[in-house]
Amino acid sequence: MTEVPDWLDRLATQAQRIRVPRYLRPPDGAGRAAAVLMLFGEGPLGPDVLLIQRSTRGRRHAGQPAFPGGGVDPDDGGPVAAALREAEEETGVDPSGVHVLGTMPELYLDRSDNRVTPVIAWWREPSAVHAASPHEVDSVERVPIAELVDPGNRVTLRHPSGFAGPAFQVRGMLVWGFTAMVLDTVLREGGLERPWDPTRVEDLPQHVIDLASRG
């Protein structure tokens, strides 16, 4: 069992005050309630975060790295319970070893019409994880924070629409879109970000575009 690190405690304390970019603010009355679990822990290489690689066979967000999560069901009672349930279903994580610290403001994914609540948590007692739902998840990774903040792993990714946003190239994954924007915010607000070159711009690979175009 490990204690919550100071940076994560500070982040959770100010989480509800984090400024949400206009393009991620939910429109009035729009979207289905959803939640994702941002689960941070202490791994062999220092602090890390749990990410999944969504199945390439999926209809939405196919093949994309993401936080575990999904829709809030009526029986969940809210986003925290939904995030823990989905994380257990997708990765096998034991919720009893997870210490929930707080939530960020809702963020809107227009692609899937979801109002997503990021749930910030500390992995108090880590458990084994795997792709527990193969039809939804191809793989599960505990990605070290040190690799995420490494300037050599960071890039600005340009979508064919012209929109450009932060991305991370780690563990054979290209983390982009919603997940990368949230990670970028968390690393910055947590005081973990290292200087990197945002003018290093790359185009979103065609095979990633093809997968993302499904649904």
UniProtKB/TrEMBL annotation:
Entry EC no(s): 3.6.1.55
Domain Nudix hydrolase: 30-169
Entry's transmembrane regions: none
Keyword tRNA processing among record annotations: no
Keywords: Hydrolase, Magnesium, Manganese, Metal-binding
Region (Disordered): 57-76
GO molecular function: 8-oxo-7,8-dihydrodeoxyguanosine triphosphate pyrophosphatase activity
Pfam family, one: NUDIX
CDD domains: NUDIX_CoAse_Nudt7 (cd03426)
Cofactor: Mn(2+); Mg(2+)
Superkingdom of origin organism: Bacteria
Record bears the keyword Hydrolase: yes
Name listed for the protein in its UniProt record: NUDIX hydrolase
Organism the protein comes from: Nonomuraea helvata
Organismal lineage: Bacteria, Bacillati, Actinomycetota, Actinomycetes, Streptosporangiales
